[in-house]
Design a protein that fits this description.
Elements (H helix, E strand, L loop, with lengths): L1 E4 L13 E7 L2 E7 L2 E3 L8 E5 L7 H9 L7 E2 L15 E7 L3 H13 L5 E8 L8 H8 L4 E7 L7 E2 L4 H7 L8 E5 L1 H13 L6 E5 L15 E4 L4 E4 L5 H7 L17 E11 L5 E2 L4 E4 L3 E9 L2
The protein binds FE2/S2 (inorganic) cluster.
FE2/S2 (inorganic) cluster (FES) binds next to loops.
C-alpha cells in the first residue's frame, strides 16, 4: 500500500532516511519507521511524503494502516533520521540492491538523484517474487526511462525479469561486473544484506557496501546474562531478569514502552539506564556507566539493572 502524507510542518528527509509513523491502536501508541520519497519537487518548501508499506502478519502498525488508512486521515510523524544516505560529492557510479519493501529508501535515493540532475550512472537490482509483487511500478518505469538509470528486475518465482532467483554473485557479474569498485547501497531482509556483505568482503571491497536491514541481525543472547532483577523505576515494577532484551522483558512485565523499529534504528525506545550493566545484542559490547541513555530494543540486562521505564 502506498500513502501520501502532507506534513503540517516542513519535514525534508535526505533521500534514504526514514521517518517514524505513529498510530494509536486500542489506546496504545505504536511507532514504525518508513522511508518516504518526496513528492512535489525537490525544491518544494514542505514536500508531501510518500510511503510504501508492506503488510506484515505481525506488524501492528502496517496492519492498522491497511485496515484504517483513509483519505483525510491523520498520522503522527517523527523527524527524519538514519545514516543510510548518499555521500557528497556524488560518486560517478552507484549500485543499489534491494528486495521487497527494501525498495523504499532506494527509490527515494534514485528519485532524489534524478531531481538534483545527477549525471553519473546508477543501476538498481531489485528482487521480488513476481512482476505482480513490484510496488510503485510506474515510478520505477519512469526512472528506467532516464538515460543514466538502469532498473534490473530479478524475480524469485517468475522468469519475467532479467534475472531469476534469490541474490547470487553471478547476478552482479552479469549486470554490474564493476560492482566491487562501486559504492553499493543494499536494503532488504538480513539474509540478503549478509550475503551481499560476504560477496564484497571476498573481493576485499567490504567498505563499498552501505546497508539497511529490516530485521535485527541474529545475535545469540548470552545465557549467562540472565539472573538478578530488572527494576523499572518509573513504574515501580520489578521482575526477574530472563536475559532477553529490555524491551521484551518490559513488555513481558506488562509495561508498554514507546518503541518503533525494534532493531536499533529509530531511537524511539531510548531510556535511561540508572544502574547496572547491559549488553548490546548487536555487538556483544557491555556497558555500565550510570545514567547512560540506551536503546532498550537492542540491549539486554546483565544481572541487576535499574532502568527508567
Ligand atoms: S525501537 Fe527503534 S531503536 Fe529501539
Amino acid at each position: 500500500m502506498t500513502i501520501t502524507v502532507q506534513p503540517t510542518q516542513p519535514c525534508r528527509p535526505a533521500p534514504g532516511q526514514h521517518v517514524s509513523v505513529s498510530v494509536r491502536v486500542n489506546g496504545v501508541r505504536h511507532t514504525r519507521c518508513y522511508s518516504p520519497t518526496l513528492v512535489g519537487g525537490a525544491s518544494a518548501r514542505c514536500p508531501d511524503l510518500r510511503f510504501t508499506i508492506g503488510r506484515h502478519p505481525e506488524g501492528t502498525v502496517s496492519r492498522h494502516l491497511y485496515e484504517h488508512a483513509e483519505v483525510g486521515g491523520v498520522l503522527e510523524l517523527g523527524p527524519p533520521a538514519g545514516e543510510f544516505v548518499l555521500p557528497h560529492p556524488r560518486p560517478r557510479r552507484l549500485l543499489f540492491i534491494a528486495a521487497g519493501s527494501g525498495l523504499t529508501p532506494v527509490l527515494s535515493m534514485l528519485t532524489g538523484l534524478a531531481a538534483e540532475g545527477y549525471d553519473g550512472s546508477a543501476v538498481l537490482v531489485y528482487y521480488t517474487r513476481t512482476p505482480e509483487h513490484v510496488p510503485r511500478r510506474s515510478e520505477l518505469d519512469a526512472l528506467a526511462e532516464l538515460p543514466n538509470v538502469e532498473i534490473v528486475h530479478a524475480h524469485t518465482r517468475s522468469d519475467a525479469g532479467l534475472l531469476r532467483g534469490r541474490f547470487d554473485p553471478a547476478h552482479l557479474t552479469a549486470v554490474a561486473p564493476w560492482y566491487a569498485d562501486t559504492p553499493t547501497y543494499v536494503c532488504g531482509p538480513s539474509e540478503l544484506v549478509d550475503r551481499v556483505r560476504e560477496v564484497y568482503a571476498d573481493r576485499g571491497s567490504g567498505a563499498m557496501v552501505k546497508t539497511e536491514e529490516f530485521t535485527l541481525p541474529t545475535v545469540a543472547l548470552n545465557p549467562g546474562d540472565a539472573g538478578g532483577e530488572v527494576s523499572y523505576a518509573a513504574s515501580g515494577v520489578v521482575a526477574a531478569n530472563t536475559g532477553s532484551t529490555l524491551l521484551e522483558q518490559a513488555e513481558a512485565a506488562g509495561l508498554t514502552p514507546e518503541h518503533g523499529c525494534r532493531m536499533g534504528i529509530c531511537h524511539s525506545c531510548t531510556a535511561v539506564r540508572l544502574s547496572g550493566c547491559t549488553r548490546d545484542v548487536r555487538t556483544g559490547d557491555v556497558d555500565s556507566e550510570p545514567g547512560r541513555r540506551i536503546q532498550v530494543c537492542v540491549n539486554a540486562p546483565v544481572g541487576d539493572v535499574v532502568v527508567e521505564l
